[in-house]
């Protein structure tokens, strides 16, 4: 599931493949920008802002994309077969003489002036993986609505940018509270620790090919059967702390996982 760390890695791959190169193919397969042609422009950079991707071109243009649940950008060498999905799922094709970047199932794809990027991402809170990370502002944002559930507050990108459903569930487990505990019920030290832990987790996974919150690498999982996450996706399996079966509930269309023994607070 694309979260801040995944999006940052995607931006790095796009940058490595396209930056400094001239586009030989530009194909945006969304009605609003179907006639836009970036061919002949040099790609300046690809960067991430929270869970948003910004690919900038000479001439002051930016292609803004968002992966949401299952979107993806794939990079291919000349002549390589495209394997990211069916043809009707392709939303963008950007090619240079050396590589082709193909965007699949992108729910958000828009071309805008680089000077207008803030219209697309200006609402975001401090970026957990960005150069302007501000933990005090992030904490203040989370606590601005004391009655709001912790899980909902963490997922609101206006509070802090980069957390998705996986990290939300894992952070709540590590804080020993359910996702439905009001933010205002958290002791000040725990609320502060929640923000610092979020930063630590995303930083630790920013270059890992497979995300882990327990510290177990993919090699360790294969060799010893250890789990890479505490609760996410582990419904009915034993909690790694107490062996109580993990529970799952629908949370506004997203699954929320928690341990009924280790995590205090209300549940659905």
TrEMBL record:
EC number(s) per entry: 4.2.99.18
Keyword hit for Zinc-finger: yes
Alphabetized CDD domains for the sequence: AcNei2_N (cd08971)
Ranges where the Formamidopyrimidine-DNA glycosylase catalytic domain occurs: 2-103
InterPro entries tied to this protein: FPG_cat (IPR012319), FPG_N (IPR035937), H2TH_FPG (IPR015886), Nei2_N (IPR044090), Ribosomal_uS13-like_H2TH (IPR010979), Znf_DNA_glyclase/AP_lyase (IPR000214)
Key word Chaperone present: no
Keywords assigned by UniProt, alphabetized: DNA damage, DNA repair, DNA-binding, Glycosidase, Hydrolase, Lyase, Metal-binding, Multifunctional enzyme, Zinc, Zinc-finger
Top-level EC class: lyase
Record-annotated FPG-type domain positions: 230-264
Family: Belongs to the FPG family.
This protein's name: DNA-(apurinic or apyrimidinic site) lyase
Species annotation: Streptomyces argenteolus
């Amino acid at each position: 599931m694309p979260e801040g760390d995944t999006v940052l890695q995607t931006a790095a791959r796009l940058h490595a493949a396209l930056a400094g190169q001239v586009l030989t193919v530009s194909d945006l397969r969304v009605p609003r920008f179907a006639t836009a042609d970036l061919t002949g422009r040099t790609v300046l950079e690809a960067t991430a802002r929270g869970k948003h991707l910004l690919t900038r071109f000479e001439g002051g243009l930016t292609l803004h994309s968002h992966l949401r649940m299952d979107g993806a950008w794939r990079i291919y060498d000349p002549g390589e077969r495209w394997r990211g999905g069916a043809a009707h799922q392709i939303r963008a094709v950007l090619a240079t003489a050396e590589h082709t970047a193909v965007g699949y199932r992108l729910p958000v794809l828009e071309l805008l002036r680089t000077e207008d990027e803030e219209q697309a991402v200006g609402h975001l809170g401090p970026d957990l993986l960005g150069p302007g990370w501000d933990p005090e502002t992030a904490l203040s944002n989370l606590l601005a609505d004391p009655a709001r559930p912790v899980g909902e507050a963490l997922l609101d990108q206006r509070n802090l940018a980069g957390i998705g459903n996986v990290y939300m569930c894992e952070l709540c487990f590590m804080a020993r509270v359910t996702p439905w505990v009001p933010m205002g019920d958290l002791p000040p030290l725990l609320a502060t620790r929640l923000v610092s832990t979020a930063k630590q987790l995303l930083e630790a996974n920013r270059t890992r090919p497979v995300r882990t919150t327990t510290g177990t690498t993919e090699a360790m999982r294969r060799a010893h059967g250890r789990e890479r996450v505490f609760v996410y996706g582990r419904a009915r399996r034993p909690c790694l702390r107490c062996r109580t079966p993990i529970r799952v509930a629908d949370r506004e269309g997203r699954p929320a996982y928690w341990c009924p023994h280790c995590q205090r607070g209300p549940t659905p």
